[in-house]
Design a protein that fits this description.
alpha+beta; two-stranded antiparallel sheet; 4 helices; 19% strand; globular
Length: 175
């Protein structure tokens, strides 16, 4: 079947719009704004209403929650001793609530857990979304959903967690 250039281009544009609409879906529960945080670097996350990147020497400040932000609504506490074990336990406890029914979470496992790093891994997302203070106090827990293989997107998950006064919480889910 031969498809012309303009119909193919229109179809691709429609697909991009649909993906952007999915990416801008409802933010996770308990997520607010961070008015001083850096603007996201992903085109799927940027757009009208996105706060500008902070100037030199500025740092993020916590603020009231708004539905357009993926940052925690309060400034996380320092992770403290035992952060890895606490982050993993909180991530494991949150999987059933965080992932929709079409993701078969049976047999899931934690494949990695590490403090967010601005220059490597998924941790750079925390810094890009919410700035250095939140980034430095965030742990990333990577998950595997073997029953969703061979789909790379559906068989892997990344949860971003921080410690708050009432315990460890997932504040962002990348996949």
């Amino acid at each position: 079947m031969k498809v012309g250039f303009w119909p193919l281009l229109s179809l691709m544009a429609l697909a991009v719009v649909a993906l952007a609409a999915c990416a801008r879906g409802n933010p996770p529960e308990g997520v607010g704004t961070n008015p001083g945080g850096a603007a996201p670097t992903s085109t799927a996350e940027s757009g009208p209403g996105t706060p500008p990147a902070p100037g030199p020497g500025s740092s993020p400040a916590s603020g009231p929650g708004t539905p357009d932000s993926h940052c925690p609504s309060e400034t996380p506490l320092d992770p403290g001793a035992g952060a890895k074990d606490a982050a993993v336990a909180a991530a494991e406890a949150a999987v059933r609530q965080r992932y929709p029914p079409h993701i078969d979470i049976g047999g899931f496992r934690v494949t990695d857990a590490y403090p967010a790093d601005p220059s490597s891994g998924y941790g750079s997302i925390a810094y890009g979304l919410c700035g250095a203070t939140v980034g430095q106090r965030t742990w990333v827990v990577e998950l595997s959903f073997p029953r969703m293989a061979p789909s790379v997107d559906l068989s892997a998950g990344q949860l971003f967690l921080s410690r708050f006064p009432d315990g460890w919480k997932v504040w962002f889910q990348y996949h």
